[in-house]
Design goal:
Length: 442
C-alpha cells in the first residue's frame, strides 16, 4: 500500500513540474515577444522620423555643395564639372566650373508618383504658321528639290558626345542639332532630320528628360537606344512616336570595329520606312523659324566659347568669313563628321539659356541622376549668325518649335542653313571674342 501511495505522489510531482515548466515557457515567450514589439515600434518611429525629414541629394551635385534650409526653393552653387571628386571607374574627370541652379526642396508624399512637370505642354495662344515659298524647309529656310520631304515628321536622333564617340557620323545632315548637359559631366546631342535621311547616324545613345519636350515641339519621331525607367515612363505618357531601339530594332545596326559606346547606329531612311509601315508617319505642320539674307542689328562675334565640362565637352565656335559659317572645336580639337570628313559647321549658333533642375531619376548603376532641363516657356537667347550676336528671348508653349524674338516681340531672323542650339544653364558665362583661360585644348 505504501508503495502505491509513493508512486502516486511521484506521478503528481512530475505532473506539477511539467505544468509549471509549461507555464514558465509561455510566460517567457510572452516576455520576449513584448520586448521585440517594443523594439520594432521604437525602430519604426525612428525610421518614420528620418523619412519625414529626408531630402534626396542629386548624384550630379558636388559633395561640397551646401543646401541652405528654411525655404522650399533656394539657390545652390553646383560645380560642374568636378575636379575634387573621384568618379566611378571609367567616368570622365573634369575641373571645377561653378554654375548656379535652382534647387527645389522636395516634399514627401505617402505614395510618390512621377509627374512630368515640363513634358505636357499647354497651349497658351493660337500658333501662327508663317507663310513660306513652295518647298522652303521651315527649319533651315532652304528650298528643297522635293517639297514632299517636308510633309512628314522630323526624326530626332540621340547622338553621343563623350570623347570616345568622336567623330560622329551624320551630324552634318541634320537641320537642327541641340546640345545639352547630361550626368557625368559630358554633353549629348539631339539631331533633328526633316529634309535629309542619312543612312548612318552614330553613335546612338539613350534619351533624357529634355526629349520629352523637344519631341513634342518638333512633333518628331524619337530615335534612341532606350533610356532609364523614369525617362521611359515620362515618354510613355506623351502622344509621340518613340522609336526606342529595344522595341523597334529594325532601323538600327552595329558598326564594325567599334566599342559598346560607339557601335550602335541608325539608318534614318529605314526609320522612315518603318514609320510608314506602322502608320506612324504624318504630314505635320511646323512653325519653324524666320529667315533673312542679312542680320538685323547685332554686335561683332567672331568666336563663341561655351564652358561645357572641360575635359570632355568644352566648345568653341569660330566664324569663318570665307564661308559665312561658324566652325566647331571641342576640347581644343576641330570636330569632324566621319561621313563627310569635313569639319562641323553651322549657319546659326543659338545659345539657349534654360533652367536645369535636379531629379531623383537614376540613370545608371553608379547612381547618377537625371537633370530636368526646362526648354518650354521662355528665357534668354543669343543668336549668332554672319559674325554677329543678337540678344533676345526664346519662347514656346511646348506644342511648336521655339520662337526667337527681340525684347519688343519682333522676330529675330536666322541665316538660311542649319542651326546648332546650345542649351546652357542661365548662369553660364559665354565668352564672345575672347580666348578662354586656360585654353580649351587639354
Amino acid at each position: 500500500m505504501l508503495g502505491v501511495r509513493f508512486s502516486l505522489f511521484q506521478e503528481r510531482d512530475v505532473f506539477l513540474r511539467q505544468r509549471w515548466i509549461g507555464w514558465g515557457l509561455v510566460l517567457f515567450i510572452l516576455w520576449v515577444s513584448g520586448i521585440t514589439m517594443a523594439a520594432c515600434s521604437s525602430s519604426w518611429q525612428e525610421m518614420s522620423a528620418k523619412v519625414a525629414t529626408f531630402t534626396p541629394t542629386p548624384a550630379w551635385k558636388s559633395p561640397t555643395t551646401t543646401v541652405p534650409t528654411g525655404g522650399s526653393a533656394v539657390d545652390v552653387v553646383v560645380a560642374s564639372p568636378l575636379s575634387d571628386v573621384t568618379p566611378p571607374p571609367g567616368a570622365p574627370v573634369g575641373t571645377r566650373t561653378p554654375l548656379v541652379v535652382t534647387y527645389r526642396t522636395p516634399e514627401l508624399t505617402p505614395t510618390p508618383t512621377r509627374t512630368p512637370t515640363a513634358a505636357m505642354p499647354t497651349p497658351t495662344a493660337t500658333v501662327v504658321i508663317p507663310e513660306r515659298p513652295e518647298g522652303e524647309n521651315p527649319l533651315t529656310g532652304l528650298i528643297v528639290n522635293d517639297p514632299g520631304v517636308l510633309k512628314r515628321r522630323p526624326v530626332a536622333v540621340r547622338v553621343g558626345n563623350d570623347p570616345a564617340a568622336r567623330p560622329q557620323a551624320g551630324l552634318s545632315s541634320a537641320d537642327v542639332v541641340y546640345e545639352e548637359i547630361v550626368e557625368w559631366w559630358v554633353t549629348r546631342f539631339t539631331a533633328i532630320y526633316l529634309s535629309e535621311a542619312p543612312k548612318v547616324v552614330a553613335p546612338i545613345r539613350s534619351a533624357r528628360l529634355i526629349n520629352t519636350q523637344l519631341t513634342m515641339q518638333y512633333q518628331a519621331a524619337l530615335a534612341s537606344s532606350g533610356g532609364s525607367d523614369g525617362v521611359r515612363w515620362e515618354l510613355s505618357q506623351l502622344p509621340i512616336v518613340n522609336l526606342d531601339e529595344y522595341f523597334y530594332p529594325q532601323p538600327y545596326f552595329y558598326r564594325k570595329n567599334e566599342g559598346w559606346q560607339t557601335r550602335l547606329a541608325v539608318d534614318v531612311s529605314a526609320a522612315r520606312e518603318l514609320m510608314a509601315k506602322k502608320n506612324m508617319e504624318a504630314a505635320v505642320v511646323l512653325r519653324g523659324f524666320i529667315f533673312s539674307d542679312a542680320p538685323v542689328g547685332g554686335q561683332k562675334a567672331e568666336t563663341i566659347f561655351i564652358p561645357y565640362p572641360r575635359r570632355t565637352s568644352q566648345t568653341l565656335w569660330r566664324y569663318d568669313a570665307s564661308s559665312g559659317r561658324y566652325l566647331r572645336w571641342v576640347s581644343g580639337e576641330p570636330l569632324f563628321d566621319s561621313t563627310t570628313q569635313k569639319q562641323i559647321s553651322a549657319a546659326n549658333v543659338i545659345v539657349y539659356y534654360a533652367s536645369h533642375e535636379p531629379t531623383d531619376i537614376v540613370e545608371d548603376s553608379n547612381g547618377a541622376t537625371s537633370i530636368r532641363i526646362i526648354v518650354n516657356g521662355e528665357g534668354r537667347v543669343q543668336v549668332f549668325r554672319d559674325g554677329v550676336v543678337i540678344e533676345g528671348l526664346w519662347r514656346t508653349d511646348g506644342t511648336q518649335t521655339p520662337e526667337f524674338v527681340f525684347p519688343n516681340g519682333e522676330p529675330i531672323p536666322l541665316k538660311r542653313g542649319n542651326s546648332w542650339i546650345e542649351v546652357v544653364p542661365p548662369e553660364y558665362q559665354i565668352l564672345v571674342n575672347a580666348t578662354p583661360t586656360p585654353a580649351a585644348k587639354q
